[in-house]
Amino acid sequence: MKLDILTPEGSIFSGEAYGVQMPGVTGSFEVLNRHAPMIAALGEGKLKVLQSSLTGPATFYTIQGGFVEVLNNNVTVLVEDAKKV
Questions:
Q1: Which residues are within 8 A (CB) of 6 and not within 5 positions of it... i.e. 6 or more apart?
Q2: What's the whole-model pTM score?
Q3: What's the half-sphere exposure (Cβ side, CA atoms, 13 Å) at 39?
């Protein structure tokens, strides 16, 4: 799936991903390849990008809340602030 992580300052990640784990406002959740369309609010916490498979390397970001949209195997994460951990 195509993943974009955007902040007001610009893009911090754009590329292919196997999945992404995010801190929702009521608990963590995960979006994998071919996920159903959805929009969700994000809370403060860690976002984990799985780039190849569940056992492959992962990239972590600390985020300050925002929103995620999943549509047509494209995931767009809009956050107020994000730092790579």
A1: 12, 76, 77, 78, 79
A2: 0.92
A3: 3
